[in-house]
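# nightly structure sweep
# worker-07 picked up a monomer target from the shared queue
# config: single-sequence mode, recycle default, output format = structure tokens
# input follows
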Amino acid sequence: MLVEESAPNGDAHFALLCDAGGQHFRGEGSDVDTALRALRSRLEAADLLIQVAGAERDVVVSPMSRQMGQGRQGYRVRLGRSPDGSALVDVLAPADHGVTLAEQADAADRWRRSQSLAGRLAAAFGLQSC
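# output follows
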């Protein structure tokens, strides 16, 4: 469950609540993705993963999405390719699987490196140098 609150200074503040295995989990942040990451960290500590789009290996939330859209959407990315508007996903949309924060960060780093010319060529030819 997503709860939008106001911080004492008037800025938006988000909380995500989740019940799993008889336990209550809460993640908070200045945008939805930050709250989701906090929630995921707490879930991972209990050996649980959440299955939403924002927890999939190939989803990246851009700084612009955080600033302009409160981190509610991310891009589904592919190595060697820049995402476009058709790649946008709701980070809280149900998904078939989720990965750990570390696995997602590793995939995002590989994608960012693939944006260079060398990375694009490697991705185009199926090389693993990215």
